[in-house]
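User: Second chain of the day. Same drill as before.
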Amino acid sequence: MTTKKKIGFYPGCSLKGTASDYTQSTLALAKAFDFEPEEIDDWNCCGATAAHNLNRTLALSLPARILALAEKQGLKEILVPCAACYNRLTVTQHELNQDDNLKKEVSEILQLPLSGDRKILNVIQFIEEVIAGQIEEKVVHPFNRKVACYYGCLLVRPHDVLKFDREEDPQTMDRLMRKIGAEPVAWPFKTECCGAGLSISRTDFVAKLSGKIVKEAMDQQAEAIIVACPMCQSNLDMRRPHIDRYLQMKTTIPVLYLTQAIGLADGIEAKELGLNKLFVQPKFAIS
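Assistant: Same format as last time:
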């Protein structure tokens, strides 16, 4: 009997709410690829996206508490699917490790020890490091479509801290999509900002920024946009009526999480992957 690989799991606020389909598809992959995400007990919001604008100590203490709880739980690796959460946890660990006095101050505020040695993985890194070798052998429905792999800005910046992929032209997600039979297009909007947390306060900005991304993907003849960030997915998918008004055209290109695309190719049911929750439904999804 094979022992399942355990990994810490920090869902963050989005994956428990608006991005519940991201959670569904991540857990569906966990089941299919025989790994076991262990959710961090009593986790809290990481403070994205506004805490750093209000109070630096608070902005560091919120993600630091998550890291301290993971340490207390004995979790050496943490899967963080949300790009904003991944960014905040990684940047915080880096900043605290650069300043022993600051780390001590935050540790005293939390009343928890902080070693600062947890391995933090975004979902793309995790898939590449843990399950990439099994993906091709499990493909039953090749994803024979052109796709635009959209990384957004928070997965690759600040590059000196995150050290994930190439800053302007990342390739990891493209490689993973090729493993399931997709053809990633070459396009210049891979790491452009979608408007991020302005989705509520300045929907007009989001319509403009996200609209340009959607239009470029369509101009490159992509049949789907593939993402690994709940804010990006929400802005490109849920805000489609605003995008269509900005572009003055009807757009039908769907926006799928990387986990959903891999799950589809590997024969996982569309509903189990949360595809029924998308605003722009992928017509090619296997029911």
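The radius of gyration is 19 Å.

User: Great, on to the next one.
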